Amino acid sequence: MPDLINNHRSIRRYSSEPISDALLQEILHASTRASTTGNMQVYSIIVTTDPSQKEKLWEVHFRQNMVKDAPMVLTFCADFNRFNTWCRLRKADPGYDNFLSFMTGAIDALLAAQNCALAAEEYKLGICYLGTTLYNAEKIIEILDLPHGVIPVTTLVMGYPDEQPGLTDRLPVEAVVHHEKYRNYSTADIDRLYSEKESSALTAKLLEENKLETLAQIFTEKRYTRKDNVAFSKKLLEVLEKQGFMKNK
Amino acid sequence: MPDLINNHRSIRRYSSEPISDALLQEILHASTRASTTGNMQVYSIIVTTDPSQKEKLWEVHFRQNMVKDAPMVLTFCADFNRFNTWCRLRKADPGYDNFLSFMTGAIDALLAAQNCALAAEEYKLGICYLGTTLYNAEKIIEILDLPHGVIPVTTLVMGYPDEQPGLTDRLPVEAVVHHEKYRNYSTADIDRLYSEKESSALTAKLLEENKLETLAQIFTEKRYTRKDNVAFSKKLLEVLEKQGFMKNK
């Protein structure tokens, strides 16, 4: 299994071969075996295979073609709607319209998503996470008809791979691990931990293409800019309010 | 691997047998192979084995004894501190002091945590997630010396199991899965989907112990009350502000 985990690649090109219902059921079952806060299972998974629905999702996921090309798109949502409905039908007053509850649902959704990803890979499917889910949550809510109490948190595209990419580089394990207490990073630490990434052929290519001096600038000036982050943060907080997760007083 | 995933049990009693350094390295390596937004790896893992540090964490995790008894406690944090430090040393202006960036880091941390959990189980270790992490984030920040830009999101206790619990019940898979669009739940749906859980021996025992009429009331009146959720939400939003993730304008 570490072999399976260690060999994960994000797949962005898919064959048109569909995923059988039986296989999908296996994978969804494995998703539901993830840990969940207090066994509340406060998440839902929306399965999209319909081409017109996929096209709408493609639009809001920044037109990444894998959303249209992969046979299946799975949207993982924090979901207190089902749990709240159950409570109300059982003479119980649910107090889950607050920020902590959103985070509880998001954690449930993300653990289920990672189980889903690994189960899919075990069955030779490929997956890719879409970070764009939180950027355009309000449009996804509309496309998927998500009610009050439900917010999409992440998305997996899934299908049989039509490419065999190499492993992505990672920082050395020591870069992300601290023992007993957080030890902050000196300039020498940063230089050492990022040196392999910064000196790679991929980085050289990106710097050339983007006409920038450092790899960090590609993140701050091109890929994840302050302006975008602030705009998406504002929209996301509005979504939390609108979907009923900001009664914090 | 679905076998491994499908056999997950949360372990709450541990033997005193320590986890070897070599095994810990394998597990941490597997954690770092999880998908991460834009390959930024904006998370950190704090490994606690020191008994006095474990005792402090036990205190803030509502004195759950597994925190003291398990040989290792792993705290998974959203971490933009390292990335921001790198940016500043590379003439790049990081715009990651906002809510979206906190969520990006939290997603990274949670996917790494689930890889960690499964890799540990592959090696015959047991794990249990601690949902209390977000409740007392500000105290964990103090205990682990987490700097600005770092927030604990979830915690795993880890060690060799000293119990063999049965599988936990789950709702039927159809309860959490929707096709193409979210279909809301009728009273009949809720009755059907929750019937197995509600009629179990465990539920009967809990109702007896808590002197309540419905299982839902055990959640709303005992385990996850509105009062607690609101108080923890307020504290958590203050932590986001204090750690530098609420510049959303």
Short description:
Two copies of one chain form a homodimer. Chain A contains twelve helices and five strands.
What does this structure look like?
- Two copies of one chain form a homodimer.
- The first copy, chain A, is α+β, with helices and mostly antiparallel strands and 249 residues long.
- Chain A has two domains: 2-165 and 232-242, NADH Oxidase; 173-223, no CATH class.
- Helix content of chain A is 49%, strand content 13%.
- Chain A has twelve helices and five strands.
- Chain A has helices at residues 2-6, 21-32, 51-60, 66-69, 81-89, 99-122, 137-143, 173-176, 187-198, 201-210, 215-223, 226-242; strands at residues 43-48, 72-79, 126-130, 150-159, 177-179.
- In chain A, strands 1-2-4-3 form a four-stranded antiparallel β-sheet, with helices on both faces.
- The longest helix of chain A has 24 residues, at 99-122.
- The first copy, chain A, is globular.
- Chain A starts with a helix and ends in a 7-residue tail after the last helix.
- At the A-B interface, helix 1, helix 2, strand 1, helix 5 and helix 6 of A face helix 1, helix 2, strand 1, helix 5 and helix 6 of B.
- Strand 5 (177-179) of chain A pairs parallel with strand 1 of chain B, so a sheet runs across the interface.
